[in-house]
Amino acid sequence: MPKVLIIDDEPTIRRALKEILEYEQCEVAEAEDGPTGIKLAEKEVFDLIFCDIKMPRMDGMEVLDKLKEKEVESPIVIITGHANVETAVEAIKKGAYDFIQKPLDLNRILVILRNATDKSALVKETKTLRKKVGRIVGTTIVGESKAIQEVKDMIGKVAPTEARVLILGGNGSGKELVARQMHEQSERASAPFIEVNCAAIPGELIESELFGHEKGAFTSAIKTRQGKFELADNGTLFLDEIGDMALSAQAKVLRALQENKITRVGGDKDFKVNVRVIAATNKDLRKEIEAGNFREDLYHRLSVIVIRVPGLSERKEDIPLLADHFLELISTDYGQPKKGITDGALKALKELDWTGNVREFRNVMERLVILSPKDIDEKMVRAYAVPNYK
Questions:
Q1: What is the pTM of this model?
Q2: Count of CB atoms within 10 A of residue 145's CB?
């Protein structure tokens, strides 16, 4: 439901415009003067603002200037009389979306409403995409420690090849980040990067997720569906937490790696696939093999190259760089200035045992950004980093 604000000192104009907009399923707010309208526009996000030119206390041009100064992005439509058309045109030059003359024309209002709400939706979508791009840009592996530099060097050597890679490391250490870097630095970078979290998918559904299914293969299979192997064709398939994969699915993954073809669940037709598989786990697969939970032949297929990602406690010298990196990303996400961090705060962060690794560190930095009134200092770290600081 579009949200619209009407700023006009004439009750009859507000009432007429409100009736039209509410009939079009809009949520309408009213302001009888400029200052009141500006306060409302600062508190809420409106898809469209109608603003009269001639008003006491503050005219429409001043309202427009204030809204632009406060970076209100809602489209602003100026309401004007015939004698003020030149002023309305001047308002458009200053950033107004459009103008409408009195007496109000129903068709003109509806056209403006449709076009302006489309623009508002596009602005929101653009913001969302910018955030996503910001996160993608933020997939660089941050750190200059010896441990992380060895990982970067290994990626540089292995990424251009077709070798399968097994990534080992604790939860939150950045295994997915390594996999994405492997893909982005490979010849397959322009093709899909498809991720499957094997631990998050029930055993009875993992085969359908990986290999797809034919219509009618099981009760809820109402149409044919491609699996992740097909979707990743010519690209990279990242099997995260592969140590949790069901044995039945492991056998089919082994066949796919050996023969470069898969069969959908409930089907008998083979599909050729050209996929580079990168796997990751936080488990000791050799122990899982001994326990009968993981196939040894699959392990050898996957572990042509093994990359171990160090935990954050093994590379605490990277904490200042990581702190700066996350402060930048979080400030972008929240649309606010980047906060600083004191040397005392960084020292306090280094004293912690980061059992949740970089993922935990990122969450702590976000908590500190939210709770710190200004720059993050040692006192804030000791108060809010973890429940029981040393």
A1: 0.65
A2: 16
